[in-house]
Amino acid sequence: MAGEYEKLEVLGSGTFGTAWLANMKSSRKKCVLKEIKVSDMTKKGIDQAIIEVTVLARCRHENIIRYLGAFIDGGCLFIAMEYAESGN
């Protein structure tokens, strides 16, 4: 699934990772890839990241950024989300 996305630019970064503006190669639509380095995380941190993915996957509302998918690549968890061009 990692090959499905092309990173374009960093949108922001924080304690747990980096948010990238990316293109979905299949549709050429922009999205956000949240990159979280899990190789250095504690078990509790990994569990919290998995909970975040689970909650995002269940959300279905027009005012909530849509979850597109998640995958692990190179020791990082990537969460793909809809890109809000007008802001968050």
Neighbour order of strands in the largest sheet: 1-2-3-5-4
CATH class: Alpha Beta
- The helix-strand sequence is EEEHEE
Low-confidence residue ranges: none
Structural class: alpha+beta
Average pLDDT metric: 89
What count of domains describes the coordinates? 1
% residues in beta strands: 35-45%
Question: In angstroms, what is the radius of gyration?
Answer: 13 Å
Q: What shape does the CA trace take?
A: globular
Largest sheet: 5 strands, antiparallel
So, the CATH homologous superfamily?
Phosphorylase Kinase, domain 1
Can you describe this structure?
This protein has 88 residues and is of the alpha+beta class. The chain has a single domain (2-82), classed as Phosphorylase Kinase, domain 1 (2-Layer Sandwich), CATH 3.30.200.20. The protein has one helix at residues 43-58; strands at residues 5-13, 17-24, 30-37, 67-73, 76-82. The longest helix is centred in the middle third of the chain and has 16 residues, at 43-58. The mean pLDDT is 89.
